[in-house]
Amino acid sequence: MIARSDWSSAEPSPDIYLGKTDSGHTIRMDASPQHTGPSPMEMVLTALCGCTSVDVVHILQKKRQPLESLTVSAEAEKRKDPPNYFTKIHLTYTVRGQNGQPLSRKAVEDAVALSKDKYCSVSAMLEKSAEIDFVIDYNDVEPLP
């Protein structure tokens, strides 16, 4: 995997960086107060949400759960002194079954645990410096056992 970040004095803001991926994508990062793009740390937190989402969706599909949607949101705390890495991350998994159908509590809990403990590479890296915990929100539908 290859990635790079480009900075140029020709940019209108001195804090704009273009992240480029091996797969050909470009992401505009902004470290200025204007936030015309995500900051690098926001990208890390978003990567965590995306990584665990992929795992949970695939696991629930394999378990034949009638999943309609999944939202993973994160709230994080950072060290006050540089380097300002994350020290605590709280994830909320909001799941919804198709047409309001209940999902299996065990299947969802197992999927989230497998992502956190086994499959999500971003989580594995962040857990070296941050405590990561989570809750599961069943969107006001009582889950099946």
TrEMBL record:
Enzyme class: oxidoreductase
GO MF term list: peroxidase activity
Keywords: Oxidoreductase, Peroxidase
Gene3D superfamilies associated with the record: 3.30.300.20
Family annotation (SUPFAM superfamilies): OsmC-like (SSF82784)
Ranges of biased composition (kind: Polar residues): 1-11
Region (Disordered): 1-39
Its EC number(s): 1.11.1.-
Protein name listed in UniProt: OsmC family protein
Organism: Acidicapsa dinghuensis
